Prior knowledge:
The protein is mainly beta. Helices cover 5% and strands 40% of the residues. It has two domains: 9-70 and 132-141, Chitinase A, domain 3 (Roll), CATH 3.10.50; 74-122, Thrombin, subunit H, CATH 2.40.10.330. The chain has one helix and nine strands; from the N terminus they run βββαββββββ. β7 (106-114) and β8 form a beta hairpin.
Amino acid sequence: MPEAKQGDTVKVHYTGKLDDGSIFDTSAERDPLEFTVGEGMVIPGFEQAVIGLQPGESRETRIEADNAYGQRIGDLVTEVKREQLPEDLEVTIGQQLQVSMANGQTAVVMVTDVTETGITIDANHPLAGQDLTFSIELVEIV
C-alpha cells in the first residue's frame, strides 16, 4: 500500500488541541482537508506528520510552535489612537479587523484592548507561540 510522500495530494481528517486539551480546530463533521504535501498549504509540522502514513492510518503528533505558527512577535502588537479610526467604528476585544498596510497589502488583526483613547491590535496568528497536538488520519492519497 502506498505511503504519503512529498508532492502527493492527500485528504486527511484531523483534530487539533492545545496543551490544556481544548480543541481549536477539527475536520469532524466536515469533508476531509485536502492539500498537496510540500506546497506549504498547511503548517510545516502538519505536513511532516502526514509523510509516511498509509490510507486508513492515524497518528498523533505534537508540533512545537516553531513548526506551527511561529513564536509571538511583540512588534506585531500596536496601539492605534482613536482619532486614527473611522468615527463610526465600534470595536470590542476579540474582534477581528482588516487593515491596510504601508505596502498596499491587507492584514487581519485582532483587537486585544479598547480604551477611551484608542485600541490595541495584534497581527500575530492567534495560535502563535503555542505548541499544538494533532490527531491525523490519512483518508486518501488522491
